[in-house]
């Protein structure tokens, strides 16, 4: 009888080891700097506006819990995570020649898109859980994409259904796609920031009409991911180290020329050089010619009388 009990314990121990090895990947831990003033959510980011990436050069296996659909796929991205008392900010950049997504709503994943799972209470470890799939009821899963039909940024929250709160902008310039996002803490039904957030980011890629690849940092968004490749949400510590965006930095829409009231050099505020607009010259010449013809006709009519 004693041998049977010992054998059972050995079997349980072996099975427990196997269960632990299934979830072999550990979530990544990073620090998010605190913004002293919010960035401009316009689809353009720079070191002057956001500082250095929170995680740079994410690709299959780097960090270890970043897994691609196919390890041979050349998918990579940089990600920035920032925060303040009002919002959490996330930006992502990836090499991409063209944005393609023909879907809306909950089908937005099927094209070029970014999916996020954000838990304002931290990841499963932070919340004292042993199950890597655990997220709190405050967690939100959201997808962002640029619609190819109207070329406008769009978003959908799978958790609540419908468009999420916050600001977001997406651009593709010179072979680089940029996602720039801010989400208010209130959207997570919390009063404000805690000490950490749980975060998974999945980049989906598309070169035709449907997605053809993905790269997920953490796990919680990609359903087809193998169990042994999952780690749960990453742990992002909300650092008290501050970052202040520069007073001036590159924006998607250039600053308009000053109006006449804004100039102090006596000019009319026109920053262009080269004289009068050619269109104005043509219009004035045409009006003058018509006036001359009318005058000639009137003179001839008077002579006939």
Would you mind describing this structure in some detail?
By secondary structure, the chain is α+β, with helices and mostly antiparallel strands. It has a single domain, classed as Immunoglobulin-like (Sandwich), CATH 2.60.40. It is built from three helices and 13 strands; from the N terminus they run αβαββββββββββββα. Strands 1, 2, 3, 4, 5, 6, 7, 8, 9, 10, 11, 12 and 13 form a 13-stranded mixed β-sheet that branches. It is elongated and about 105 Å long.
Topology summary:
Elements: H1 2-22, E1 29-35, H2 47-50, E2 55-58, E3 66-68, E4 77-83, E5 87-95, E6 113-119, E7 140-146, E8 153-157, E9 167-173, E10 176-184, E11 196-206, E12 211-217, E13 234-243, H3 278-304
Parallel strand pairs: 1-4, 1-13
Antiparallel strand pairs: 2-4, 3-12, 4-5, 5-10, 6-7, 6-11, 7-8, 9-10, 11-12, 11-13
């Amino acid at each position: 009888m004693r041998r049977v009990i010992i054998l059972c314990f050995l079997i349980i121990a072996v099975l427990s080891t196997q269960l632990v090895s299934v979830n072999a990947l550990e979530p990544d831990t990073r620090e998010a700097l605190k913004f002293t003033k919010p960035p401009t959510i316009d689809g353009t980011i720079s070191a002057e506006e956001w500082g250095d990436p929170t995680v740079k050069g994410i690709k299959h296996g780097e960090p270890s819990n970043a897994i691609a659909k196919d390890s041979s796929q050349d998918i990579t991205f940089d990600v920035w995570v920032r925060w303040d008392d009002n919002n959490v900010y996330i930006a992502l950049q990836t090499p991409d020649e063209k944005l393609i997504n023909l879907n809306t709503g909950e089908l937005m994943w099927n094209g070029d898109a970014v999916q996020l799972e954000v838990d304002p209470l931290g990841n499963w470890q932070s919340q004292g859980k042993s199950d890597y799939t655990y997220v709190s009821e405050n967690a939100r899963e959201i997808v962002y994409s640029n619609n190819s039909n109207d070329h406008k940024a769009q978003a959908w929250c799978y958790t609540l259904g419908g468009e999420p709160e916050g600001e977001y902008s997406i651009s593709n310039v010179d072979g680089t796609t940029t996602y720039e996002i801010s989400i208010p803490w209130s959207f997570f039904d919390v009063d404000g920031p805690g000490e950490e957030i749980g975060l998974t980011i999945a980049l989906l890629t598309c070169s035709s009409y449907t997605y053809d690849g993905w790269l997920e940092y953490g796990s919680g968004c990609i359903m087809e991911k193998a169990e042994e490749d999952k780690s749960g949400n990453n742990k992002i510590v909300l650092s008290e180290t501050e970052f202040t965006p520069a007073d001036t930095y590159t924006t998607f829409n250039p600053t308009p020329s000053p109006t006449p009231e804004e100039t102090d050099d006596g000019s009319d505020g026109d920053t262009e050089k080269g004289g009068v607009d050619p269109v104005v010259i043509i219009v004035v010449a045409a009006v003058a010619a018509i006036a001359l013809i009318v005058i000639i006709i009137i003179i001839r009519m008077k002579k006939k009388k």
